Amino acid sequence: MLEENVTQIVETIQLNEQNAEAVNTLIATHVQTVPMQNPMQYSSLQGENTSAMVDYAEQPTENLMETEEIAPTLQESLLYYQFDGLKPCFSAIHEFKELGHQNNFLKGGKWSPDGLCLLTNSDDNYLRLFELPNTWNSLEVEENPSEMRSVLKVKEGETIYDFCWFPSMNSMDPSTCFFLSSSRDHPVHLWDAFNGSLKSSYIGYSHVCELEAAISLSFNANGSHIYCGYDSHIKVFDTETCNSLDLRAKNKKNRKQRGIFGALSFHSNYFAIGSYGGTVGLYDERDPSQLIDMMETKDYGKGVTQVQFSPDGNFLFAGMRRSNSIVGWDIRNTVGPMYQLTRTVETNQKYTFDICVDTNACYLLTPSLNELLIYNLTDSGKLVRSIPLPSINGSVFHPRYPLIATTHGERLPIVPSGQEGENTSNEKMSILKVPISTEYKS
After folding, report:
1. CA distance linking residue 1 with residue 349, whole number of Å
2. Which residues pair with 217 in a beta bridge?
3. pTM to 2 decimals?
4. How far is C-alpha 152 from the chain's CA centre?
5. How far apart are CA 130 and CA 117, in angstroms?
């Protein structure tokens, strides 16, 4: 059995090496690396402009492709996204219908930091891992989108609340290939992304010594600690030792953030927490017991289901359930929100948005009721495009290439098969290619 596992791991590593070689070839032909090396401007609703260089997390040198032959060419080319011509590359439909789970709608997806894998969550309590085919940029794929199959399934015991990748995950280094998940009435689990084995469990206890499930979770920027959101408090686990610290932060006026902490997001040393009580708290990892600032969302929606920083870390966005807005603040001046982006969320379902940049603009992609909305944050939050996509509930931009992964589905009333009014579910995962235009500096 041990020899079979070793053989399987070796074969997987060889496959990833082939994928990495194809990825590097695409980078060398200017597919998509330039946006990460160009400055951009953000504009507020009031028309004030502040310039900022995009600050990206450090990537392994083998992935940056910093060679003398490539770097000068990349610096001279400019790339622009053309969101009016999205083309489907791949989809996964039958994958979510095979296990007999009726109305198996998806609950979001997340690209791995190296961009080679996509992790999805669905109502059957499975986390599925898909590998991005290296043919995604071929003309044949555009003409005939193919069906994807998962290469790994991980089963949780109950409803999955949240999941995330290890921030330094690199498919060429198996020791970094793992992800976290939290589920109802279970500890936080750390899973091996190669074979699906359980590597570790992080148990949170309530004040009466009962097991407490984390509603949200996130690694810190370097992956050394795991931050988990509970009811009105967070727990910080050491990734290696599983030791935990219970924190109930407050500001200088003894004001605390309350409610179920349903969202967590990190940028450098700072992290944000979204609460079902209608607040977004800003904290510093170097002193997590101190609440730096707290923004109210009650005028736009109470249950915060997602928070996310802009790439430069100067802006913070929050999405709520049963809300018609995504709200954004400049964390340097949080007197009032600088962005109020319209979308329609009529249920308690979590709609996940994402932020991406090209050479001269920053975009926010968000699901709305049966459509994907794309806003230009550089142009005062102007709506760029509205794309009809039935039952969409999640969108996430690829960390390197012009690809958008979307998840679909919603909870429907159960109607016995064959009866009039039987519901038709639309659960699926899709990968869309974003056309790009390229210019070269003279």
Report:
1. 42
2. 228
3. 0.81
4. 19
5. 6
